[in-house]
Amino acid sequence: MEEHMAGKRQITTMCPMNCLPTQCGMTIEVEENRLLSLKGDQHNPDSQGFLCMRGWATQEIFENPKRLLRPLRRVGQRGKESFEPCSWDEAYAMIVDAIQQTRPERVGLWRGHGIGTTGPIGHRLVSRFGLLGGFQQWSSAIVCWAMGGYGLGLTGVVKTNTKEDMAANSRTIVLWGATLASQPDLAPRLVEARKRGASVIQIDTRRTEASRHADDVLLLRPGSDAALALAMAQVILEEGLYDRAFIEHHTLGFMPFAASVQTCTPQWASAITGIEPERIRDLARCYATQTPAVIVLGGSSMFKHQYGWEPSRAISCLPALTGQLGIAGGGLGQRHGASPESTGYADVLADVTPKMPAKAAIPSHMASITEAITSGQLDVLFLFGTNMLSSFADTNELACGLERIRLIVSYDLFLNATSRRCADLVLPATAWLEDIGLKETATHIYLMERALAPAGECRSLTTILRELAQQLAVEGFFPWWNEEDFVNALLAAQKTADGEPLTVAELRRCGGYWQKNGLSHIAYQDHLFDTPSQKIEFWSERALRSGLSPLPSYTVPASEKYPLRFCQGRTLTAFHAFFDEGQALPTLALANREPQLWIHPQDAHKRHIASGTSIVIANQRGQFEAKAHVTDAILAGVVWMRDGWSGVNRVTSGAPIVSATASTVIPGAPGGQAAYDAWVEVYVKEA
After folding, report:
1. I need a surface site. Which of 82, 203, 324, 490 has the fewest CB within 10 A?
2. Is 322 within 8 Å of 287 (Cβ atoms)?
3. Which residue, 189, 200, 324, is CA-closest to 250?
4. Is residue 5 very low, low, confident or very high in pLDDT (cuts 50, 70, 90)?
């Protein structure tokens, strides 16, 4: 190991952040087990040298005084940061003893988006450990992109065209809730498309970094996206701008859909969205006639409200109405949680028979998970790379439930709000340069070499799970020789020119880049869609059987007594609650000193609030403190904050968006997200 790590070396790797579908390449220089430098990889076919602040800041993980370097166990009662060092043997003994004293179905595994669990290695191994051990495990997609994918799945449009296709072929580009904070690699492609003459339209609840790339910006009220889409459909139908041949051959339920949107006029939608009727008509006409037109959907924030499945359900009908599916420059653009038609990783869970009876499983349904925790159904909970109190809606209820769990184990790079308050055992995680890994974009698979030996007593997730599986007699957990052999198993679905499975050795020979087999930049050229009928389903029997509207719909949100609609999203200076809410890395901490609430000048003036004023955001559920940022980049009546601050979800609803039963009807897209709705009041903080 020491010989392998000696000498100055340059290595091509990937940023460890989980900004799917963006993944940015890095070139690093290391010497004597130290990271010397880090920069964007100019040759990476996706990022082409770009690296944002979040990527640059990851070099500050190493030699960081806040980094966890040895196991810690709690001293005294939960609630305070009070830990003492312990050995790995003692840590394993605590875990094994706690699991052996209960039943497997009372053990839960919650993996977040944190470092060490985002790639296919950690993700698949946690799943394998849970399935073979008979433990509860859930999909972290329910805090992120899955609700949007659920609505798209009901219609049947889950695959995407690529950003390269958009850059080369789209005449109209609609950025619907899509931000460059989530996918910065869109920016150069937008520039390419505009140089070619393409028009870019942005639809969002606030002006973002994407606004400067847009020819037109439409700000709408939060949660009203489905109403806008239905009104666009009404205009397209009324003015005869739809594609009759495509609808006749490739869709189901057009007639009831057309009848249902007759009343969804621009005037109707204007009262809901706040967008003028004529602007809605112009948007619909532009989308239907200035073709090919692509819609780039946001991955998460626009689906977080009580009826979060409705926007993507309604929006995905627009390319079907206009025949924009299966063509260059059309369809849906790249999106978190989606991919174009291609071959990805091999299924390394195919040999697994789940040990837990189906009736004992708690579904990947946030409200059900919270209820299970609060009702005492779990005795042991593993938190892999997650600050659970910052990611779940209604964290007040969750925090009370966590107190009932006998043993909570956190595996991470740094302490965070959840581990400080609730964890009984904290395990130090390896960082990305201390493990072998893979990253996947829409078009490529990338190798992440192990460049450094683990710091301190840090152990990889693979090592920990293998050792726990051995002590718990979880048979068949790791049937590979070593980690590289496991990576080879993941790569085996990719075939080289001579028909042999792709291996790590071959991927190294290719410089660490691999374009996926079977890649098509244009989705659905065969016009076979992702529904039981293989047609676009304007009318969905699956939705009807699940207790949802079978037709695309807009539901008026339940009103609350508080006047301001609270929303959250992402910025280029932070990502969820990574790195202790951004505070562990100096560069990110400087850019994210404290929670900051965007508020419109009208709303601020009424409350005697100026930029920089210390404020309290409150409703019937709870409150938290922040500083005000007064800006007209947001609508009056709406306030906005970046996600990831542990206090944010004290005011959010936590109600299920769809039932636990309905949440399972779309393969690969669990509809288990809870609502992050909140109506609040904002006050000046008393001195």
Report:
1. 82
2. yes
3. 324
4. low
Provide mean pLDDT across the span 586-603. 96
SS3 string, 299-336, reads CCHHHCCCCCCHHHHHHCCHHHHCCCCCCCCCCECCCC
State residue 1's pLDDT score.
42
Cβ proximity of 201 and 175 under 8 Å: yes
CA pair distance 95, 383, nearest whole angstrom: 13
Are 419 and 384 within 8 A, CB to CB? no
Q: Which residue has the tokens 């290719």?
A: 510
Q: Are 315 and 687 in contact (CB under 8 A)?
A: no
Task: Read off the pLDDT of each residue in 606-633 and give the average, rounded to a whole number.
Answer: 97
CB 200 within 8 A of CB 374: no
> Which distant-in-sequence residues (6+ apart) come within 8 Å of 226 by Cβ?
307, 310, 311, 313, 314, 315, 552, 553, 554
Take residue 379 and report the two structure tokens written for it: 């005795």
Domain ranges for the chain, please list them: 72-137+343-441+444-515, 155-340+527-546, 564-684
The C-alpha atoms of residue 648 and residue 613 are separated, in whole angstroms, by 18
pLDDT beyond 90 at 580: yes
Cα–Cα distance measured from residue 179 to residue 301, given in angstroms and rounded to the nearest whole number? 10
2 pLDDT band, cuts 50/70/90, is very low
- Letter for the amino acid at 645? W
Q: What is the pLDDT of residues 273-310, one digit of tens each?
A: 999 999 999 999 999 999 999 999 998 889 999 999 99
Query: Within a 13 Å sphere around the CA of 542, how many CA atoms are in the beta-carbon half?
Result: 24
Q: Spell out the long-range contacts of 243-246 with Cβ–Cβ below 8 A and sequence spacing 24 or more.
A: 243/321, 243/322, 243/323, 245/323, 246/320, 246/323, 246/325
Task: Extract the tokens encoding 354.
Answer: 């789940």
Q: Which two tokens stand for residue 604?
A: 């601020």
Q: Residue 119 above 90 pLDDT?
A: no
Q: Which amino acid is at 541?
A: E
Cα–Cα distance measured from residue 535 to residue 522, given in angstroms and rounded to the nearest whole number:
17
Half-sphere exposure of 134 (CA within 13 A, CB side): 16
DSSP single-letter state for residue 621: S
DSSP of 63-90, one letter per residue?
T-TTS--S-EEE-SSTTS--EEE--HHH
Q: Which residues contact 672 (CB under 8 A, 6 or more apart)?
A: 138, 139, 142, 146, 363, 364, 365, 366, 367, 368, 369, 656, 660, 663
- CA-to-CA distance for 230 and 318, rounded, in angstroms? 9
**Cis ω on the peptide bond leading into residue 21 (within 30° of 0)?**
yes
* CATH number of this structure's domain 155-340+527-546: 3.40.228.10
β-pair type (199-204, 437-440):
unpaired
Q: Is the CATH code 3.90.1150.10 the one for domain 72-137+343-441+444-515?
A: no
CA nearest 3: which of 433, 565, 453?
Answer: 453
Instruction: Measure the CA–CA gap between 384 and 382, rounded to whole angstroms.
Output: 6
User: Quick check: 160 and 340 in contact, CB under 8 A?
Assistant: yes
Consecutive H or E run containing 339: none
Look up the CATH architecture of domain 564-684.
Answer: Beta Barrel (2.40)
